[in-house]
UniProtKB/TrEMBL annotation:
The active site is at 132 (nucleophile). HAMAP family: OGT. This is Methylated-DNA--protein-cysteine methyltransferase. This enzyme catalyzes only one turnover and therefore is not strictly catalytic. According to one definition, an enzyme is a biocatalyst that acts repeatedly and over many reaction cycles. Its EC number is 2.1.1.63. Its main location: cytoplasm. The keyword Transferase applies. Residues 28-48 are annotated as: Disordered. Keywords: Cytoplasm, DNA damage, DNA repair, Methyltransferase, Transferase. Belongs to the MGMT family.
């Protein structure tokens, strides 16, 4: 059974979804690969919020406040075996660092998988917590991000990858 809740963040409202197995989604408004149609499952709030969703919300608030760099909430993303491999690899990218799609493909054992890594990265259902925003082009360019390049830049500045533009205002 899927449950979900919403939280406010500096990058806009986030929909946090979970199953009994763990966190299954963190989606931004206008996210490129948002589940189609109205959310499935049951919206929860307050005392009825499952522990996994409450924990994810707490950890995301700490992340945006700059006091958390690693997430501990249990994850249960739904995807193909290859996508799961890529998403697991994304979690090994240290906060404050980036990797290119080609580097990830090489780590998976085949440098020709660059496009497939990019596609799996773009289909990551647990934004921020599975840090797909830390993947950049081989030339250092800020290539696509399901939440939009402005959000990617915000997250990378928050993590210290890019120089801060003074005080980062909320984007949305």
């Amino acid at each position: 059974m899927l449950t979900y809740a919403y939280m406010k963040s500096p990058i806009g409202r986030l929909r946090i979804s979970a199953t009994e197995n763990g966190l299954s989604g963190v989606h931004m408004e206008n996210h490129a690969h948002q589940p189609a149609g109205p959310p499935e499952g049951t919206e929860v709030s307050g005392a009825g919020t499952p522990a996994t969703i409450s924990r994810a919300i707490d950890e995301l608030h700490e992340y945006f406040a700059g006091i958390r760099t690693r997430f501990r909430v249990p994850l249960a993303p739904c995807g193909t075996v290859f996508q799961q491999r890529v998403w697991t690899l994304l979690q090994s990218i240290e906060p404050g660092t980036t990797r290119s799609y080609g580097e990830l493909a090489a780590e998976l054992g085949d440098p020709h998988l660059t496009r497939a890594v990019g596609t799996a990265n773009g289909r990551n259902p647990i934004s921020i917590i599975i840090p797909c925003h830390r993947v950049i082009g081989a030339d250092g360019s800020m290539t696509g991000y399901g939440g939009g390049i402005d959000r990617k830049l915000f997250l990378l500045r928050l993590e210290g990858v890019l120089p801060s533009t003074e005080e980062q205002p909320a984007l949305f």
